[in-house]
Amino acid sequence: MRFLDWVVLVGSTLTIVLYGLYKGRGSGTVSSYLLANRSMPWWAMGLSIMATQASAITFIGTTGQSYVDGMRFVQFYFGLPLAMVILSATAVPFFHRAGVYTAYEYLERRFDPKTRTLTALVFLVQRGLGVGIALYAPAVVLSVIFGWSDRWTVVLMGVLVIAYTVFGGIKAVTWTDVQQMAIMFVGIVAALTSAVLLLPGHMSLGDALFLAGASGKLNAVDLSFDWTNRYNLWSGLIGGMFLALSYFGCDQSQVQRYLTGRSLRHMRVSLIFNAGMKLPMQFLILLTGALVFVFFLFEPPPMLFHRAERERVSGMTAYGEVESRYREAFTARREAAQSLLESRDAPAAERFDAARRRFDAARADGIKLTGGPYNDTNYVFLTFVTRYLPVGIVGLILSAIFAAAMSTISAELNSLATTTVIDLYQRHVRPGASDSHYVLVSRLATGFWGVYAMGFALFGSRLGSLIEAVNLVGSLFYGSVLGVFVLAFFVPRATGTGACTGLAAGLATVWWMSRYTDISYLWFNVAGCLVVVAVGTMLGRRSDQPI
Amino acid sequence: MTRPDEEPAPLVGSWRILYALVVVYLFVLIALFYAFTVAFRGPR
User: What residue spans of A299-434 are helical by DSSP H?
Assistant: First the structure.
């Protein structure tokens, strides 16, 4: 990092935080602190919804995933626009008319206190895990760049985000989200443009796409159906839709974004805005990862992207021999790529495939030297940024990563605190206290969850690819919670007891599926929801029972 | 029937039409992504 990069990173981060604090001033009531007095316009909520979902993991993990696995991850988002339409037409009007602070508060009005409390607790566990991972990701950035320990970077980032979120409330969170999303858009364009401009001089964008496609990295749509295949058209459309329905309709970290809307129309349009923007944005991020792969076809990538691991194994006796074989395999792959580019025929494609396999095998030998589970997917993009991008752009992309991290963490802390205070503390511990008391407790709860997130994040290095870890955790809970809301909205005979029993059955089913089957995790959402709805409907009141 | 708190959708005036446009937009995007996938599969 050079001086200009530091100026861009520190300047943009501080500007955003100060702007958020300025916009968040005067949040002295519960309605203001937690719901911005329901005054937000659609575009601010829409950007806040996007910023909340787009964490630092989106930049770090998604580009790395595309480098390793191609663009097929984009299919994960295919169900999102459908979910936005369904929520806009169904759940949003319910929440708006109920005038609730949390999604779970609605469940008490429809069912009973235990259903509200149970779903609130599920959210707290689930989002508590998610916020820890979201905090760990930017710590990875700092540890790779500066060689700091993950532990200290988690603490540093955590303290900064906690301070800004505790002070500003949801107005600060939302308005910083707007700025942060703007920086993310600029960062995405800058990263993609840089990846194109850094291609070898003789290569056009079309050539790069040809090589990326020949390497299987532009596999954006897979029409085949396979329960065990994580990302194909069907798992994306159906499983992804159920996941998005649950995330945007039942997860307080998103519901709270649009509960701040100044009218039902603004709330709905904020979701439709997200429906229009999300897929193109993810496509561009994944395309960047694919172009980084092409860049490293001609520029030697490190055998191990994780610098600390690389330095650790470089002292081993076998390292020199493995490294030498890896370099030879790289040269052979580069020549095969060049040959394919010139001839563009099937024999050259086969030679390129063979060269890629030899290269991958040589790298696998290098990975074996680490002696344990090793996954450097999350380090690929950062290596590219810090080693090859020009001064200023490095700072800009790091700003985008920091903006993504801060927007997600702040929104999650804000929603965790809201659920803790509104659904647990105010409901069960101390009802009827003054408004200022609840504001104070909300600030304390935000701080508590921030400290908890830091504790969880300290174990982040034991997880694999961060992006999949977050989604996997989510999928264990999401579908079942969605089922409870489906019962509430659409099954008049459903009762609180039936919903809670269904939720337990749904969670057990999803746990069993994750433990004993090879079914891809996106389908867990569908199964969890269907089990809850089936059980809840069966256990509902008979038609001759009074409501 | 429109509820009293339901304002018309922006641009097209009807929420149903807006939702239909979002669905059409999604399938156009998927079709474009599929064309992109096929176009760059490489020689085999």
Answer: 307-313, 319-343, 346-368, 380-388, 393-418
CA–CA distance, A452 with A456 (Å, rounded to integer): 6
- Residue A148 corresponds to which tokens in the numbers above? 């700091």
Candidate from A212, A222, A263 with C-beta closest to B40? A212
ipTM: 0.92
Q: How many whole angstroms separate alpha carbon A294 and alpha carbon A308?
A: 25
Minimum CA–CA partner of A216 in chain B: B41
Interface membership of A344 toward B (CB under 8 Å) = yes
Q: Are A145 and A137 in contact (CB under 8 A)?
A: no
Q: Which residues in chain B have Cβ-Cβ distances shorter than 8 Å to A233?
A: 30
To the nearest whole Å, the CA of A468 is away from the closest chain B CA by 22
Q: What's the pLDDT tens digit per position in A117-175?
A: 999 998 998 888 788 888 887 777 667 666 766 777 788 778 888 888 998 899 999 99
Side-chain half-sphere of A319: how many Cα atoms within 13 Å? 14
Check: CB of residue A383 under 8 Å from CB of residue A302. yes
Interface test with A, best of B3, B7, B33 (most A CBs within 10 A): B33
Cα distance from B19 to chain A (closest Cα, Å)? 6
Q: What is the pTM of this model?
A: 0.90
Task: Please state, in angstroms and rounded to a whole number, the distance separating the CA atoms of residues B14 and A542.
Answer: 38
